[in-house]
Specification:
Length: 245
């Protein structure tokens, strides 16, 4: 493992973090009253586009898993279409998981789906860029001792940290805070003053604006993973060994 490879990984991650920063500030020049909290759904869409575009651009330039074989145009088009299908499947899969964990089934469907989109952007998109639409490669990378490069090590860390951030972001939901971002979107949703009601009946019965805390948690988790993974790999570079599969 060369230090230059770790530096490439670090610079790539810094650009991914920069894409999130851009998604916060650039839209404010074009959209009136734009903010992460007040126009949260708009920001989710913009952030997803920015992060996906930067990931695609970086992996096309850096080519961490470059193959010596030349691929035909039809193969590349088929691969791209498969990646799009995998991404959509990931969004629907996360949407179902969120509903099973208490997200509104009928109300706030758009909010829940965009939450699934942003989480797929932080987890599925890097997998597709690095590994392609190859389920066997995904299972190998996320199995024990299955990684073959620092890029796959980094993919493990950023994906897991995104999930952990999402999970931690759900903790503020039952809290009885009277912050603007925790108030109900519409008057028809009654204010719940009981922690018991919120935890028993799920997010649809709580006075928070769903799913701000979870999406912010996922974002902070993703950023934390981008920062931690190069540092962890550099710290453990002497112990890390990779096998070719």
């Amino acid at each position: 493992m060369k230090d230059t490879d770790i530096k490439r990984l670090l610079y790539t991650h810094l650009l991914c973090i920069f894409s999130i920063i851009l998604s916060i500030f650039i839209p404010s020049f074009f959209l009136e009253n734009f903010s992460i909290l007040e126009t949260h759904l708009t920001w989710l869409c913009i952030c997803s586009v920015f992060v996906t575009a930067v990931n695609l651009l970086l992996y096309l330039v850096v080519k961490p898993n470059a193959s010596s074989k030349r691929s035909s145009l039809s193969y590349k088009v088929t691969r791209f279409l498969k990646c799009c299908i995998y991404f959509l499947m990931s969004c629907f899969f996360f949407h179902v998981i969120f509903v099973l964990y208490g997200a509104p089934l009928i109300e706030l469907v758009l909010e829940t789906f965009l939450f699934a989109v942003i989480l797929s952007t932080f987890t599925t998109v890097p997998c597709l860029c690095l590994l392609g639409p190859n389920i066997k490669a995904w299972l190998r990378v996320f199995s024990r001792n299955g990684v073959t490069s620092i890029w796959e090590n980094s993919l493990q860390i950023t994906t897991i940290s995104s999930f952990i951030g999402t999970w931690l972001g759900a903790f503020p939901i039952p809290l009885d805070w009277e912050r603007p971002w925790q108030m109900a979107i519409e008057r028809k949703y009654k204010m719940c003053r009981s922690l018991y009601v919120c935890t028993r009946h799920g997010a649809s019965h709580c006075p928070q604006v769903w799913p701000i805390s979870c999406t912010l948690g996922a974002t902070f988790g993703y950023v934390a993973g981008l920062v931690i993974s190069p540092l962890w790999i550099y710290w453990n570079r002497k112990q890390l060994t990779y096998k070719n599969h």
